Amino acid sequence: MRFSLLGIFEWVTALAVLAIWPCAAGGVSARAPSSSSPLVFRHVFAPEQGLVRPVEKPFRREICLNGLWRFEPLTLPHGYQRGAGPPPLPAPRADSWSKTPIRIPSPWDVNGFASGNGSEFVCFPTYPKSWNAVQMGWLKTTFKIPPSWKGKQIYLHFMSIIGAARIVVNGHLLANHFNSFLPFEVDLTKTIQFDRPNELLVGVRGPHLFEIPGPYQSLYPYPTGSFWGMQVAGIDQDVFLQARPRLHVARLFIQPLVAKNILRVRVRVSNGSLSRQSFRLAAKVRPWTWLDRANELTAPECRSALGRVVLRFTGPREELAAGKSGDFTLQVVVRRQLALWSLRSPQLYGLIVALRQHKVTQDRKYARFGWRQWLIRGRQLLLNGHPVRLRGDAWHFMGVPEMTPRYAWAWFTMLKQAHSNAVRLTVQPFPPFFFQLADQMGIAVLDESGIHASHCRNNYWQPATWRRFRRALRAQVLRDRNHACVFGWSVANEVVPALRFVVRRSHASAKVLARAETMVFGRLGRLARMVEKMDPTRPWVSSDGDGDLQGRLPVFVAHYGRPSDWAAWVANPRHNRPFAVGECTETYYSSGPMVARLEGDRAYINLHDYMQGLANQAYRYAAAERKLCAYGSLWNLVWYGLKPLPLGLANLHRRPNLHDGIFFGSFVPHVPGMQPERLGPYCTTLNPGYDPHLPLFEPWSFWRAVRAARAPGGPQPSRWAKLPAPQPLPRPLPPVIDDVQFAGAVGGKLHQELAALQVPLCGAGAPAAPLLILDARSLSARPRPTLDRAVRRVIARGGKVLVLEVTASSLAAVNRLLPAPIMLTNRRAVSLLPNRQSAITAPLSLGQLYFAQDKNPYILDHGMAGPLVKGGRVLLKACGINWLAWTRKPEYLKTAAAIESERQAKPSGAALVEYAAGAGQYLVSTLQLVSPDPRKVALLRSLLVDMRVALVSPNGVNVSPAHDQR
Questions:
Q1: 83 φ/ψ angles, rounded to the nearest 5 degrees
Q2: Which of these, 906, 900, 891, lies nearest to 682 by C-alpha position?
Q3: How far apart are CA 393 and CA 634, in angstroms?
Q4: How far apart are CA 405 and CA 741, in angstroms?
């Protein structure tokens, strides 16, 4: 999956245009999009904060190391075989560094993510195309340490590296780390130099290099994460240097025990000094206020202020040995000093813990929290003691477009408008700003690990797999457990169905499957118990789509199924735990025939009508979730409920290229947040101010149906509450043609197909019949005069001449026989639309004309244009959308690919044209009806029946329309 990049000249031209284009006064972008000038977004793409908060700065300092680093791509050793374990990581060479700098953070192969349709996800066009194939490499930068940092404990902090990382500073190997998506830090105190620049080398081997084959085609001995984690490698989030006091607060765990009216804080203190230290911990709580939240540009920037102190509490004198870390507890009784955090009123507070020695503050550590408590009672999920039903959304992480708080803000804003209040951050730890925005906006979050099983390739039989699973879950809980929005943890995704699928596919016995389940489910259960121990404040620990792991988990989470299945589970009195549905509706798996069962034939016409069918299902499923589930989520609103947006694309009727999209300003080093060069059209369904000519989002009917089903007070009456009544098609008229002349190769493929259909054939030289079928493929370059006379004779007597299988090689010969010429267009199609005003095509259902799921889906290689088409009547034409873009594209491309295929200008797709000539008619077709595909043969049969040909059954009885099985 690779993109084509701009040539050097084209890209230099694009940069020159960007450099000279003036900024619109006070506006978001420089201009309306056009075909000649790019649309420039003048605000920061990813307005993120550093690690050190203002209240900490008197005692802590940091430097953001984001910048233009050097990159050295490495080739795999000669003869290396995938699955043989990771190859060695050779040391970097002085002469092998790429001339192109890499913007950190960004994976080096970032442009290869979600490739396969166009330029949508090419966000760094200056990166060489060859980087997309690189599987390991070195990244390098240098940094200086301020003299004021002497005497401090100095750390190198990575927010995330995808792949196995080797950290080398000034030639010293300091760490080997393999835990994608999650933060880690390295102590540099003994390695750094104050009198000269320090060199940082980060060697990364992509996750796929660690694959180890196991039973049942298993391969991955690590948490793969989602699309993003499985396709890229490198430093994908911020890098910081941080200076702290030798004796400092390492982390906080805030436990709001609302039911007991107690605020408890577990404080980890680290002593990097050379002697035992005594100290005292003290805490203050101040209200947190979100400033400038009304504007879509400033709200995601999360400007804030802390109010006056509302709560103070102090701990006893403590001691800690040299070089050790320890956990200490602070707690206070809350006597109405704190307002409750809720989904409707998400009040937040800042907690500041001070470490004091001899009444002098030596360090401060800040964390934000909400005064709230999630509990489980029977089948109910409680928030602050009151039952709550969570109406959610779930979607995979989609790379660069989501690498900004602007996306999180837009997603949650859209959900609020759809009367939704929850998300599951699917099969991968998302960046921290998603949780920060959810805290602020009152969105409940199910925090899911990167243990993704749906690909059916996890290698559960490697001990390293479970060590990596455990390490990843531990890091995730430590990172996220202070967030008010997190109502529960999902330790994995769809392990049960995936395991059963792969074991059964191998034809293993029931005993073998039982042993595999015992091992895997038991280990997952132990991971769940670890999470419960690390975070006793949240009883919700699930494995999404895995039920309750045979009783090992406190909640039951189903995927898919039908509302009747859910109701049966809930009705069982033995099930006394919350029931949830993490995914449902058939959006991803849907196809034309499936949606047609909901919406009728209209589902085959275009995306609008297709989505109407999915909306029918979504309304009913959302209404059932509302009644039955403590937490219910569809799949999904943000990707299938909204249209992909043509960011920066003025002409929707052409294919986007690298000159289209939203462009950003010059790179600024040493600031947090990813800095892409562009966002391509259709790479996202949300527009948080990038393109002022587009809305925040543009919903399909799917979104509107869910909004109605989730409306306050109960589902609103809606057109999607009931399936539409089927629209009957006209029946073919009785057969009247008993003799059909055939002109072409007798015994050829078309002749054999017609004979197999029991068409009453006679030769071209026989007395004129009401219908002449002409096999265009068998025409010589100059048709014989006898054929021309036969054609004219049929037309003169008011008959029809049906020309089948017109191709480029036979076009000249066909045109010699027609009263007006045709031209062939470059138009392929896998589905057709009929003319309902014609008796020949009106009886055809659209299902008969849909071939997108067939082995050989193309029914048309060329459309027709020219005088004959212009003067005639088109009976069948190519559908305006290429349904292969939906049915045969991966999930991260299908919606964009489908909408692009529908909007782009296309040549004529006329596939069957009727032309009146004198008393008769010509019917000319480019359809590929001569085929081993029985559905295409069936279409030819239906066309002949609709033309009133009396097909003869094997017993000699004419086939009437009543016998025509469609």
A1: 95, 0
A2: 900
A3: 6
A4: 70
Pairing state between β 678-679 and 662-664: antiparallel
- At what angle are helices 607-628 and 701-709 packed, to 10 degrees? 20
Q: What percent of the chain has pLDDT over 70?
A: 94
pLDDT digits (tens, 9 = 90+) for 247-275: 999 999 999 999 999 999 999 999 999 99
Integer Cα distance of 126 and 68 in angstroms: 13
What count of other Cβ atoms lies within 10 Å of the Cβ of residue 666? Answer: 9
pLDDT at 294: 83
| Gap between the Cα atoms of 645 and 46, Å rounded | 19
CA pair distance 444, 828, nearest whole angstrom: 46
Question: ω before 687 within 30° of 0 (cis)?
Answer: no
The pTM (predicted TM-score) of the whole model is: 0.93
Quote the distance between the C-alpha of residue 321 and its chain's center.
Answer: 49
- The DSSP output letter for 241 is E
Cβ-count burial of 273 within 10 angstroms (0-12 exposed, 13-18 middle, 19+ buried)?
A: middle
For 297, the 3-state DSSP assignment is: coil
Q: Which two tokens stand for residue 49?
A: 């904060």
User: What letter would DSSP give residue 329?
Assistant: E
Listed in sequence order, the residues at least 6 apart from 338 whose beta carbon sits closer than 8 Å to its beta carbon are: 263, 285, 310, 311, 349, 371
* Cβ proximity of 740 and 769 under 8 Å: yes
Which are the contacts of 588, defined by CB distance < 8 A and separation ≥ 6?
Answer: 635, 640, 891
Question: DSSP per residue over 519-553, as a string?
Answer: HHHHHHHHHHHHHHHH-TT---EEEETSBTTTTTS
Query: Rounded CA gap, 107 and 119, in Å?
Result: 17
* CB of 645 closer than 8 Å to CB of 414: no
Q: Token digits for 809? A: 């090689």
Cβ atoms within 10 A of the Cβ of 550, count?
Answer: 13
- Segment 356-360 long-range contacts (CB within 8 Å, at least 24 positions apart): 356/279, 356/280, 356/281, 356/282, 357/247, 357/277, 357/278, 357/279, 357/280
The pLDDT tens digits for 12-40 are: 333 333 332 333 323 344 444 455 688 99
What mean pLDDT is predicted for residues 879-891? Answer: 95
- pLDDT tier for residue 964 given thresholds of 50, 70 and 90: low
Residue 510: CB partners within 8 Å, gap ≥ 6? none
CA distance 927 to 911: 6
C-alpha–C-alpha distance, residues 384 and 414, integer Å: 26
Q: 63, 143 in Cβ contact below 8 A?
A: yes
